[in-house]
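Progress narrative, work stream C.
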Amino acid sequence: MLEKYFSKKITNFVFCLFIERRKPSFFDEIIYNSITNTPITSTKNLILDKSSRHLIINIPNYIHITENKENIEKLKFIDVPQYKGFLVNLKNQVSTANFLQEQLSKRNQKNLRSKQKKLENNYRITHNVFFGNIEKENYVLIFKTFYSLLKSRFDQKKIHNRYLADWDNLQSNFYNKILKKEASLFVLYDNEKPIGITLNFHINDIAFSHIQAFDVDYAIYNIGDICMVNHITWCIHNNVSIFDLSMGETYYKVKWSNHHYNFYNRLYYNKNAVLDIIWVKKTSLKFKLLQYLRDKQILGKYFSLDRLLYKLNN
């Protein structure tokens, strides 16, 4: 009986906002991008049950939210900090060149130009951004290559990737989002062959990088850096102020991000319910412990669940 009670009612805020374009009903109608002080609109309500506890995970702390007191009634909440997040803040940026001068060392700028020049001299390199328009046949071909690149990369790293198992569902859901300008595909080509693909989601002045994959055969050219420059240029030209690289600290994200933030989990509970009190203490303690282990690099560096899952499945 207790196990049934402690099964969590969970909402993933990032997926809810950026993918489904919905906002939990516990929050007020208007939420803000606090970096640009821009309201995030065009969202529908996700109705949550105000009579019982609820867990909302992965809330970026640059998204300013306030509680809808009518919808939460007697529920209280606590916040527990979690993963670090990384983004590129392009507010007030006038050009890609200006951003590169501010963000990269002279050595890194020189290396970037050199890699890009060698790539363009050795191959017929083009790029395209699909945002609002893409032929279905082309979309299917790109996603076929996308899957192949992602699988090759994670097989090389010997890490489980949760998106690969649900790829057909992913592919079927996002074609219309591109047509509605709720998502985009950035594709770098060698002739007609995609060698770098990124799937992003868009809401107001934020682009959220969801999945990216690069051809490992072109690794010496730092394809990720070249794709990032293309993203920055497009964002500046299209009035996108935030390019969110999401959670998980990597050399690539640290190199390119000029704004770090934190995700947090919010636990709603009834302070008059004994089982709710037990649940919130138990769950918050678990999240704090997990984050402590991440901060000490015990989780991630010395132990990785995704590496273990890969070994078990192969």
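Work stream C, second folded protein:
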Amino acid sequence: MARPLIPAAAGIAWLAAAVVYVGTEAIAASAFPGYSYSANYISDLGVPDVAEYQGRAIDSPLHAVMNAGFILQGILYLAAAVIATRALRAGPRRAFLALAAVHAVGITVVGLIHGSASSAASGIGWMHVVGAGMAIIAGNAASIVAGLGSGRVGVARAIRVASVALGVVGLVALALLEALGGSTIDGIWERGSVYTVTAWELMAGVAVLVAARRHRARPHG
């Protein structure tokens, strides 16, 4: 029996999601005076207010770029998940798709409701925190689910192990952020929980495109 082929479109969407995320982050950070990848939160880049919040000076002229990046990343991640799961007939398709949807909703909330003094004052700041938690936990959990279940659809062992490892590292980093938060290296813990999802997108995207290319090169008759 031939292994099910995930369409190349899914791989392209996952790669695009990763590039969009780190790209918009870098662009927004370049315009933020004194922005620190180790001390500042990623979502500081999406705050439209110029103010101080939780001891951090916030001034992100390109906040719209970062917020667009948050939302577009979620859309691309979910689109890839839909394309991939529709092509498969085995493995934890429903669980992965559900987690992908939670991730997309969470990161969209992050892009729409900011972690800022004005959000806190208006009583909606908690929604930003919940959205970030949804995006981080579901994104890393999806990586773990994909790694544990994708052996049934012929994914290489190395990719499965790396997938689980990335998800676990991301969740551990989130736990460290919660336990040690409030320090000058919060940005490191946060990025440890977010970039694992980005790394998974890159890995999955490349794996899907390589498999699609091999399939096209294989003689069919």
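Residues 8-212 form one domain. No further action is required on this item.
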